[in-house]
Amino acid sequence: MSDLYDVIVVGGGHAGCEACAAAARTGAKTLLLTHKKSTIGEMSCNPAIGGLGKGHLVREIDALDGLMAKVIDKAGIQFRMLNLSKGPAVRGPRAQADRSLYRKYMQQALAETENLTIEEAAVEGFVIINDKLSGVVLADGQKRLAKAVVLTTGTFLNGVMFTGHQTTIGGRIGEISCTGITPYLKQMGLKLGRLKTGTPSRLNADTIDWNVLERQSGDENPQAFSFLTDKITNRQIDCGITSTNERTHKIIRDNFNKCALFSGLITGKGPRYCPSIEDKLVRFADRTSHQIFLEPEGYDTNVIYPNGISTSLPADVQSDFIHTMKGLEKVEILQFAYAIEYDFVDPQELSHCLGVKKIEGLYLAGQINGTTGYEEAGAQGLVAGVNAALYAKNSGKEFYIDRSQAYIGVMIDDLITKGIDEPYRMFTSRSEYRLLLRADNADARLTELGYKIGCVGDERYMIYKEKMEKIQSFNNYCRNKTVSYADIENQGLSVKHSGKKSLKDVMSYPNVSRETIENIDSEIKNIDDKIYEQIEIDAKYSGYLKREYEDIEVFKRDENMKIRDDIDYSKIGGLSTEMVQRFTRVKPKTIGEASRITGVTPAAVTALLGYIKNA
Amino acid sequence: MDNKTIYALSTVFGKSGVAVFRISGSSAFKFFDAMTNFKSSEIESRKMYYMPVLDIDSRETLDKCLVVAFKAPCSFTGENTVEINCHGSKAVIRSISESLSEIADFRMAEAGEFSRRSFYNGKMDLTEADGLADLIDAETRLQQEVALKQMGGTLFNLYENWRERLVSLLSYVEAYIDFPDEDIPQDTVFKIENNVFKIIEEIEEHLQINKVEERLRDGFQVVISGPTNAGKSSLINTIVRRNVAIVSDVAGTTRDVIEACVDIKGFPVIFSDTAGLRESDDSIEKIGIDLARKKIADADFNIFLFDAENTEPEVFADYLSNKNNYLLVANKSDKISESRRKELLEKGCILISAKNNDNVEAIINALYNCFNDMYSPSCACLITRQRYKEALSECLSNLRRFNLSKEIELSAEDLRLACREIGKITGRVEVDEILDKIFSSFCIGK
Questions:
Q1: Tens digits of residue pLDDT in A429-460
Q2: pLDDT tens-digit profile of A365-379?
Q3: Do residues A596 and A488 share a domain?
Q4: The whole model's pTM is what?
Q5: Please, how many CA atoms are within 13 Å of residue B213, restricted to the half-sphere of its CB?
Q6: Which pLDDT value is given to residue A142?
Q7: Do A209 and A121 share a structural domain?
Q8: Ranges A186-190, A605-609, B265-269, B422-426, most confident
Q9: A552 belongs to a structural domain
Q10: Does residue A223 share a domain with residue A114?
Q11: CA separation for the pair B26, A362 (Å, rounded)
Q12: Which residue has the higher pLDDT, A32 or A87?
């Protein structure tokens, strides 16, 4: 224990991987502690990355030089751009992964990271010196010292798994849980709760009758997640689709009393958008069928992930109902589904930097903060890792992403101002600036910010700079290039004969394709797709974007009004006891944040504003 | 909150000696160019002027007022400010308020907004914070709660109903956007368009109904129509007690629509005497009859007048609406028998004699009751009402942009902004509310 680290990251899941890599990138001497090196980067549930909102998060992680996008680009076996038929703001990249390749490339990326040490050990407590968090205690009693600690314990904090009425202690099938950390957090006065999630059974691909099943294929031109990946070269493979039927439903209904969820064994709340099959039957009783996607877990494995039938029913019932489905009549079940319950910390205990307000130097990321999903975890890991590094190095800086900059900012702000009552997942509808916060422009929104704070390397920054210059000059070209009415009308478009029309004006017309623009101006043919896309979107959304920019200006004004940490809310005249409690609990950093706290009234915010102006 | 110039009545709405309007924002001085004969460039700061304030369109004088301009930053809010001291009559306040709302970049202030702006500009440092909280609270109560509660909740429920329906439509669109892999039926989304059109219609109609406010200023329209020689002009003359229409015994004398303005127990009422409703070959008279039909349709109240001696009330069957805003009046009651009298009463008619001023009071009372019903106590809250009107108009313009042939995320944006506008009246829209709707309506989670 001769080493003193800047940052220790506990846990090698998706939050932990991004956290340790980000801390190390930011220049901190970092230690990753995991109880099993071989499961670093494990996809515990669905072997897929991205989706709506989630894909946005992955692009944002990438724009900040994180790992997830680069790894999935190498490990992906089926890439699809969701919502391709809808507009660019609501398109989300999604890819299914080869589970073992994902682990492999993630572990490889970490091994290549400078400033990072990885050690295999379970953490069972904290080192406190002079009331200050100074490191962690390992299961064997050894200590590891650091200035800052990032906890990314996922489902391992007092994890309990359920299959029917049978319970097993552990954080993932075949693995132990972590019990030593919760008591300290409670002792420090943090509010904790229980949440529930689950994972479906796994099936043997060789025993499925694929011939009778519908297929789902990936995109013909798979698009990469990372801004640095040129092309996806992996072979793409199909998924199968089956569905539940009335026989399936009858078996499940007849056995409701055996399921952990309804018998009261599980007390934690599960996510509504990822319900177990029994939950679906109760809430949508009139539906006679639910779609089930059969997703291969990789190239060289026979394991199939049946997406849509997570359950806490006992093994024999699972077996019975799975065999009622088309194509699965003779399927071999490799692993039964289970539900899992775990501790989480009320995210209202956190600051925008994901630091615990009551414990200096402690940062939390991922499921421990009440979120769900690899992407949500990774994004928080990155923010927590950078902030832990900035803190450990006494930089006096904080890495703060706000709601108008990124989905990462929306997520963290939602968590810390509103708390959660079910596992939090990203949706595009959570962002009030959705047309601006797109997956395609994550780099334009974040790379500069990341470079300034120190988590983006020179290589990426140079590429980014070059791209931005190209966008800028192409934008100027399109705005300044005048197009005659005749040229527009020759393309079969109607145009009002008043004022000059620029090329960009024409791009904003509905249903104008790139081909049309190229017909008007053949120069356009030389423009790179990614560059063209940015100007086209800007033109098509122009009126709406203008409104969002105006809203952001108003938003920023409140965000720029800072509130000091040491403010005593009980001293503010005109605040009810309830408001004093709400403010004291969240300790908002800005007036904007204060106004978003659940239950806070406009009058209370104004009183607070008055007080800080006078103080 | 945006950076527009805001205005509001700063005194309590109602009859008072003086009422004060306050305007604040970078374009505040536009008021002078738009609504006075002065140029904003010739106005000196902090000097009181006596000037006529004009209707923005007609340039008619609305009131003679005392007006002061304060140049930024030397004002309450720290922005350019104008204060208008006008007479405290409801009509004056209403008309000034309406003209102000038409100046480009001007909008009605939201609750607490003057104080809020003065904060942002660092002008409130002398005010005790708790005093300010009270102030904001008071403003909020005045402009929102009281107004909503006074209306007995009906208006609130109406608005909330629209908002909830919009949220629910929005949740369909959002589900369609956020869960592309789920089997959300596409036809659900396309049914939305009709529902949006329906809400647009309802809001439009509501804004129409809200013309009561204009009626209070311009007068309620009462049309007296009926066969020639029924005594329409005589009735008006009796009511008006002055000779505005030509009365003669020759059928078809009154060809033009003639108007007379009368005050009925506090309500301004405009009576129109129309040409007799009969088929005519005379082209001028024909025009008059067409005019009469249109008038009947547009009227706030119709009096169908006929000669008790020789006409049956059924002649009006074509004109009667299902609304409760008309009277069947049998004139010349002095000339009929008791049995005829009984017969007409049974048909729901009112019997009068315009000439002898007999029972005309019954008409007056019916009119009063009708207008008093239209003018619910809610009308006392001009400030909030005008604010509602602006929010609803803004909501409408967002909804009118909505169409599913453009990118779905833009349609979602239209609905979202529309919800937000109504939310300004009834409370905020939370994302959670939309998600709740999605999860309860669709089986999400493959």
A1: 999 999 999 999 999 999 999 999 999 999 99
A2: 999 999 999 999 999
A3: no
A4: 0.76
A5: 22
A6: 94
A7: no
A8: A186-190
A9: no
A10: no
A11: 47
A12: A32
Q: Is the pLDDT of residue B189 over 50?
A: yes
CB contact under 8 A, B446 and A427: no
Whether A90 and B408 lie within 8 Å, measured CB to CB: yes
Rama region for A27: left / alpha / beta (φ>0; ψ in -120 to 50; rest): left
**In-domain check, residue A555:** no
Among A82, A86, A606, the residue with its CB nearest the CB of B133 is A606
- Mapped onto helix, strand or coil, the DSSP state of residue A290 is coil
Structural domain count of chain A: 4
Is A554 inside any structural domain?
A: no
Chain A residues touching residue B178 (CB < 8 angstroms): 52-53, 90, 427-429
Q: Do B125 and A613 touch (CB under 8 A)?
A: yes
Map out the domains of chain B with their CATH numbers.
5-127 (3.30.1360.120), 215-377 (3.40.50.300)
> Does one domain contain both A239 and A271?
yes
When pLDDT is averaged across residues A406-425 and rounded to a whole number, the result is: 94
How many Cβ contacts (< 8 angstroms) between chains A and B?
Answer: 134
> If you average pLDDT over every residue of chain A, what do you get?
92
Do the beta carbons of residue B277 and residue B283 sit within 8 Å?
no
Last residue of a domain, one of A398, A430, A453: A453
- Token pair 């944040």: residue: A593
Which of A490, A520, A547 corresponds to the end of one domain?
A547
Q: CA of A28, closest CA in chain B: separation in Å?
A: 38
CATH number of domain containing A491: 1.10.10.1800
Q: Which residues pair with A296 in a beta bridge?
A: A304
The pLDDT value recorded for residue B271 is 84
Q: How many alpha carbons lie under 13 Å from residue B400 in its C-beta half-sphere?
A: 10
Residues A606, B119: C-beta atoms closer than 8 Å: yes
What pLDDT shows up at residue A282? 85
**b/e A313-350 (16+ beta carbons within 10 angstroms → b):** bbbebbbbbbebbbbbeebebeebbbbbbbbbbbbbbb
Residues A434 and A565 in one domain: no
Q: What is the CATH number of the domain that holds A405?
A: 3.50.50.60
Q: What are the phi and psi torsion angles at A603 (to 5°)?
A: -65, -40
Residue of A nearest to B431 (CA): A430
Supply the pLDDT for residue B228. Answer: 77
Give residue for tokens 């026979």.
A302
Distance (Å) from the alpha carbon of B191 to chain A's nearest alpha carbon: 18
In this structure, are A401 and A525 located in the same domain?
Answer: no
A284 and B1 within 8 Å at the Cβ level: the answer is: no
- Let me know whether A429 and A541 are in one domain: no
Tell whether A153 is covered by a domain. Answer: yes
* Mean pLDDT in residue range B233-237: 83
For residues A311 and A278, the answer to whether their CB atoms sit within 8 Å is yes
Tell whether A168 and A28 lie within a shared domain: yes
Structural domain containing residue A496: 458-547
To the nearest 10 degrees (0 to 180), the angle between helices B129-140 and A602-614 is 150
Token duo for residue A139 = 């299961």
- The 10 Å Cβ neighbour count of residue A542 is 13
B115/A52 CB distance under 8 A: no
Distance from CA of A274 to the nearest CA of B (A): 4
CATH number for the domain spanning A284: value is 2.40.30.260
Rounded Cα distance between A50 and A57, Å, is 8
Which residues, 6+ apart, have CB-to-CB distance to B361 below 8 Å?
Answer: none
CATH number for A605: 1.10.150.570
* Contact: A606, B439; criterion CB under 8 Å: no
- Best interface-test mutation with B: which of A287, A429, A434, A438 has the largest number of B CBs within 10 A? A429
Residue A571 confidence (pLDDT): 84
- For the CA atoms of A19, A24, A28, A30, what is the dihedral angle to 10 degrees? 70
Alpha-carbon distance B145 to B132, whole Å?
A: 18
